[in-house]
Amino acid sequence: MSHQYHAAAHDFAAIREICERHGFCLVKGVLNRDDLNGLLAGMRAASRVRQNSSDLLGLPELRQIYFDPRLLAIARALLGPQLVYDGESNVNFEETIGANTLNPYSRLHCDAKGMPGDITRMWRSPTDATYRAYRFGIYFQDYRHASGALKVIVGSHRGDPAGYEEAQIFTGGMESHAIGRHRIECPAVRYPLYNLPSEPGDVVVWNLRTFHSAGAKLFADNPSVAVHPKVEDDISAEAPALFAPPPGPRNALFFDYAAPCEEIDLYIKWRAWPVSSDMSGRLAKRSDDPATLRLAADNGVIMRHDGLIVALAVTLASSNGPNPIQKLTAAEYDQMTQRLHGLLRTHAEFSPHFRMFDRERFEKAANRNAAVASAVNGIVAALSVNPSAA
């Protein structure tokens, strides 16, 4: 491919080199029109059940995409043969332009959190190693000349993460850009920004330590110019016609591949621990159903269900208290206990930090109910001291 940030679907060496150097890659032509039509039909069917689901692998209409050999090959080129699903995925679908398109999360941020001494701290490697997880994005619109693309800070997967945050990224000076017949002056930034010009069939890949934002605004007369989201907003408030409109609804699929290692273990736990999150939403996840587990086993993917485990444990622990998260019948309590027991039996952690429960006590318990009770007590106790559980 001619562009320094782009690679062909089967050029795994280039994909890996671009991701290692820049923190992201636009992989061209991975999916065909039939693939996209099938995925859109699945998204439409799934949306009738629940809009904007965060449980891709629990949706029979869509979960196969995660195990597509073309995507697994790219993930393994980046991460090695053993892959982990960290529980993070999202389905955005709208029939017409709505909230997904008009109100994207446009703040530049990165998702990689969790350090051995503080699970809420942004991850940073003392050796400047690459974070071992990537997010894949499949967009169904053409963003080469339209607003709505992914924006990234080039190279922000390395170094001190604080340097890419808003308080540090602006230089205090100004930069000039040619937009059609005019030039605009706007606050300068220390690191290059890039709006990924994806088109249907491409897969956008970025490291979880790469700073990024959604819904980039493209200048109609010069779509190659990328500015900070705050600058976009300021210009748009005064001259909205300078920007190209979105090409249609922002329909997209997002999901992570990771390697089994310390930083991923910490990231998964950081995502899972907060008990203030939507417990009913977590309990509704179905990524542990037998069909999904078979797909994962057949394709050599380790499944982590920490968020669901926490939700089940907290729900069971509160069931006999004055403020139950969910009122359970005896049959529902038994069913939930059985589900949690199955998840705990196969649960594998990749670091000794912030252990969820005592594995030895769990395995030595006299029966299933006793094993689950010991694990629930351990999880609740861990939550009570974990800084992200407030």
Set down the secondary structure blueprint.
Blueprint lengths: L5 E3 L3 H11 L1 E5 L4 H15 L21 H11 L3 E3 L3 E4 L6 H4 L10 E3 L2 E5 L10 E7 L9 E5 L12 H4 E10 L2 E8 L3 E3 L7 E5 L4 E5 L12 H10 L13 E7 L3 H11 L6 H5 L6 H9 L2 E3 L2 H13 L11 H17 L12 H6 L3 H18 L5
Parallel strand pairs: 1-2, 3-15
Antiparallel strand pairs: 2-12, 4-14, 5-6, 7-12, 7-14, 8-11, 8-13, 9-10
Helix pairs in contact: 1-3, 7-10, 10-11, 10-13, 11-13
State the main characteristics.
390 residues; single chain; 34% helix; three-stranded antiparallel beta sheet; Jelly Rolls; globular; 2 domains; six-stranded mixed beta sheet; alpha+beta
What is the CATH fold-level name of the largest domain?
A: Jelly Rolls
Radius of gyration: 22 Å
Binned, the helix content reads 25-40%
The biggest sheet amounts to:
6 strands, mixed
Number of β-strand runs: 15
Instruction: Estimate nothing, just give the exact number of structural domains.
Output: 2
N-to-C span: 48 Å
Strand line-up across the major sheet: 1-2-12-7-14-4
- Mean pLDDT equals 93
Overall structural class, as computed from helix and strand content, comes to alpha+beta
**General shape:** globular
CATH architecture label of the largest domain: Sandwich
Tell me the name of the CATH class of the largest domain: Mainly Beta
User: Which regions are unreliable across 5 or more consecutive residues at pLDDT < 50?
Assistant: none
The name of the CATH superfamily of the largest domain reads q2cbj1_9rhob like domain
Helix count, per DSSP? 13
